[in-house]
Design a protein that fits this description.
Two copies of one chain form a homodimer. By secondary structure, chain A is α+β, with helices and mostly antiparallel strands. Chain A has helices at about 5-20, 65-80, 100-105, 110-120, 120-125, and strands at about 25-30, 45, 50-55, 65, 85-90, 95-100, 110, 120. In chain A, strands 1-2-3-5-6-8 form a six-stranded mixed beta sheet, with helices on both faces. In chain A, strands 4-7 form a two-stranded antiparallel sheet. The longest helix of chain A is centred in the N-terminal third of the chain and has 20 residues, at about 5-20. Chain A is globular and about 35 Å long. The termini of chain A are far apart. The interface of A and B includes residues 14, 39, 75, 79 and 81 of A.
């Protein structure tokens, strides 16, 4: 990944974090650099004990979430009783949130049609 | 703060994070460098929707938690319905967790006697 793409993804995550705050949730972001072998998702948001866990992807094209990462996210669903989403920010479309269950059913693969069909909009989640 | 003290505090936080994982909680750590104006505590831990928010301090001597930080932690208590603690790792004593309410009552001041009296041990919180 080029540095400019990395920066773009980083900025997009920050914008998402601020948007989450504005919606009345509190949130914490864990930069990838600060993890070291623990199952840490990108963002955790909370309001009134309602816990939302998000793994963020800023990519042009479809992608596959690898098994390790899915395993880590499942742990959050099971142990923390969180709602877990893969958030994809497609160019010119903004973030959409795909429930982990749907991603697992699709064997981790996330493409554009899948995003259109299963991706939930921000306002439907952070309310 | 010297670099070696910073590193020591950093390592201590990592050890705490791993200990939290081992106790069956999931946790996420937000390095101070990755915040920028949002009320982010150091660590959030969750098990079965039980949410614990921790601000970590590794210091030799007593200290005062400033008003801004207390305000941010109060937001987590109120909006996220979290249990909030200031964790102090005193030399040769290990971490103890002081409930935010107690810290507020004491006007943010945390000294050694206060730590002995109000600090809760790890095993009583992460169970």
């Amino acid at each position: 990944m080029t540095i400019s793409k990395y920066k773009k993804g980083y900025r997009a995550e920050w914008e998402l974090l601020h948007k989450i705050y504005k919606s009345g949730f509190l949130a914490i972001r864990s930069p990838r650099s600060g993890r070291i072998g623990l199952p840490s998702p990108d963002i955790i948001a909370v309001k009134n004990r309602r816990l939302i866990v998000i793994e963020c992807k800023s990519r042009e094209d479809g992608f596959t979430v690898d098994k390790d990462q899915i395993g880590q996210l499942k742990a959050w669903k099971k142990r923390a009783k969180a709602m877990v989403y893969i958030a994809w920010r497609m160019s010119r479309k903004g973030w959409r949130f795909i429930p982990l269950e749907d991603v697992i059913k699709n064997r981790g693969r996330i493409g554009k049609k899948f995003y259109e069909k299963n991706g939930i909009e921000f306002d439907k989640i952070f309310k």
